[in-house]
UniProtKB/TrEMBL annotation:
Residues in HTH cro/C1-type domain copies: 12-66
SMART domains: HTH_XRE
Pfam families in UniProt: HTH_3 (PF01381)
Keywords attached to this entry: DNA-binding, Transcription, Transcription regulation
Spans traversing the lipid bilayer: none
Protein name, per record: Transcriptional regulator
Gene3D superfamilies: lambda repressor-like DNA-binding domains
InterPro entries associated with the record: Cro/C1-type_HTH, Lambda_DNA-bd_dom_sf, TransReg_Diox_bact_type
GO cellular component: cytosol
């Protein structure tokens, strides 16, 4: 049966694969259970607006992108800037960093630079 839940799930799976996210990684980064994501992608589980927003944030997409599925194919066509790959590979880490004060963020950046140098990964530069 080709329901909206099924089409949404197929669209979510397509976006996840398009941006090279494993289901396990998406579950870990979003805080949602992998079994729940699997059920959503197969059209077997209902999804709340809250969870749509969590998944969109984790994937680095606007929430409407997850709802932009074509009723006949499950994937909407690429429409420009929103079709670009997300820039942040670790959205949960980024969210945690944003909660820190400016001073603590600077301290963490210095720590990462120092560890990078000591581990032989070269110099990280601010862009």
């Amino acid at each position: 049966m080709d329901t909206n839940l099924f089409r949404f799930g197929r669209h979510l799976a397509g976006l996840r694969k398009k941006y090279n996210w494993a289901q396990d990684k998406l579950a870990l980064e979003s805080g949602l259970a992998r079994s729940y994501l699997s059920g959503v992608e197969r059209g077997k589980r209902n999804i709340s607006l809250r969870n749509i927003c969590i998944l969109a944030d984790t994937l680095g997409l606007p929430p409407h992108e997850l709802l932009a599925f074509d009723s006949s194919h499950g994937m909407a066509s690429d429409t420009g800037p929103s079709a670009a790959a997300p820039c942040d590979p670790y959205p949960s880490l980024n969210r945690a960093m944003q909660k820190l004060s400016d001073r603590d963020q600077a301290w963490m950046a210095d720590l990462v630079r120092t560890l990078s140098l000591r581990l032989g990964h070269g110099v990280l530069r601010d862009e």
